[in-house]
Amino acid sequence: MCGIVGYIGFRDAYPIVIKGLHRLEYRGYDSAGVALSNNGLKVYKKAGKVSDLEDFVKDIKLSGTAGMGHTRWATHGAPSDRNSHPHSSGDRKLTIIHNGIIENYATLKEALIAKGHTFKSDTDTEVLIHFIEDIQSSTGKSLQESVRLALNRVVGAYAIVIMSADHPDEMIAARKGSPMVIGVGKGEYFVASDATPIVEYTKNVIYLNDNEIAYIKRDDLLVKNIDNTIQEPYIQELELKLEMLEKGGYDHFMMKEIYEQPRSIRDCLRGRIYPKQGMVQLGGIKEYVEKLKNIDRIIIVACGTSWHAGLVGEYLIEEFARVPVEVEYASEFRYRNPIITSKDLVIAISQSGETADTMAAIELAKEKGATIFGICNVVGASIPRLTHAGVYTHAGPEIGVASTKAFTGQVTVLTLIAFYIAQQRGTITQSKFIEYLTELDEVPELVERALQSNDQVKAIAERFKDSANCLFLGRGSSFPVALEGALKLKEISYIHAEGYPAAEMKHGPIALIDAEMPVVFIATKNSSYEKVVSNIQEVKARGGKIIAIVSEGDVDVKEMADYVIEIPLTGETFVPILATIPLQLLSYHIAVMRGCNVDQPRNLAKSVTVE
């Protein structure tokens, strides 16, 4: 959600900034802009894509060794040229780019208008840069101090970069509740909202912490907190590789990431399972073994696809570890007064590690004394730093907005956690444990086989690409898979889709069934198989078009369904991972056939860093 990139050094800034904005397009945005320092501040911005901005400036000579750029996802003010970032102060000597929301902007704006300030946009961001200008002009303080004073008075979340016409050799960056990373080069620095624009130029990065301000020059970096105390920044090396950010011959990042799942799941398992010994090792949480033996309850908090993964985790943990589990939308959890004690374990799931609602839920749970584990994909993100312990999914960068390999990675980690807790609490026999781990070790290969259904799924997509609605139904741990399948379809194809427990169909959704309604069943061989077969018969009796995900070798459902997609036969525990694969492919092909922007669906952002 929104993207920031900045550069100060010895190279031309514009090519670095514009390439960085392209790298950040996956985050979701509706406008783009750049600011360059060259005998004053030059600002160019445009509603639309980064390519529209490039067309807008193609005949302008752009130079300067300091610059910054922004892709905006609209919050305050509709997408438009005037609401695009960067925004400037009244005297045009300061300019700012900003991710986040300034919640008290209206009060600040009213006071500034009373002082004679005029505004050219509807944004909270423009209010912030005017506020900084006002402090500087009314107090005579330095720009550095004026920024610090302003940030002490604003309420909300922000990642900001500020440039000044009077200080062309300096850039100021700050964060609170929104990510910010600084790339460290030789005689140059890079600033971005994540590491994707930086990896091409340097592997050394600093992740700013909340309430920190970085004062950046070409050959110097000073970090302070908003109380004006100097901080010692920690430089770490990026694991990210440039080739991970390319499509690698695929038409879309989403398709590449679907096909990366055998590798990403294998990377998630590597060094963590030992089937022959019947052992799971999770180094990130091993210090909490005693805690795990004595917890009363697990609460999983997440949003979107991560919430669906959490629902699968609920089935797995309760089945194997015999600990009660509750799965909560982080956005709702944070606004309740939940009953949490020190005997609770809270597991926070987020692909990006920057989801605002999930971070707020973590803070709430910590205040109430719970132990917090994180499941995250991005090393160095905020959530791993906020939690007591955790496990990375190691899925690699996920550029497509619709989550694919992150979901299967999260489910894989939750499976490992379920087994790990069961191992510590003694709720599973050693022989069974060896059996399950042996099956789990084979899952990447089974996913590879599941991907072989692509051509068949593509043919089914051709039949249903013009549907107006779609139902996804499953039972047990396949119910969250149905939810995820429905979410994928509506996210990228804009077809209305709903996921339901198959048994709930008779409690309302069956009224929608007619000859035009495609109904997708997860009907694999498991403990609910006969019940799902009955549900399929109910849909068939009403003329619905049935697409069934079945286990290899199935006979019964094949006789009833209009279309059948087989997945490799596996234990019920691992069905959610395999059954997800054809649903991802179905959504992808339908979206492509409808001419939708698969990697950047409308109105969506990859990382939701504001409420």
Task: Characterize the structure shown.
The structure is a single chain. It contains 19 helices and 27 strands. It is globular, with a radius of gyration of 25 Å. The chain has 611 residues and is of the alpha/beta class. An eight-stranded antiparallel sheet has the order 3-2-4-1-10-9-11-15, with helices on one face. A seven-stranded antiparallel sheet has the order 5-6-7-8-12-13-14. It starts with a strand and ends in an 18-residue tail after the last helix.
Features of this protein?
single chain; 611 residues; alpha/beta; eight-stranded antiparallel sheet; seven-stranded antiparallel sheet; 19 helices; 36% helix; globular
Task: Please summarize the sheet with the most strands.
Answer: 8 strands, antiparallel
Instruction: Give the strand content.
Output: 15-25%
From the N-terminal CA to the C-terminal CA, the straight-line distance is: 11 Å
- Helicity, in percent? 25-40%
**For the CA atoms, what is the radius of gyration?**
25 Å
Average pLDDT reading? 92
Q: Give unreliable regions as ranges.
A: none
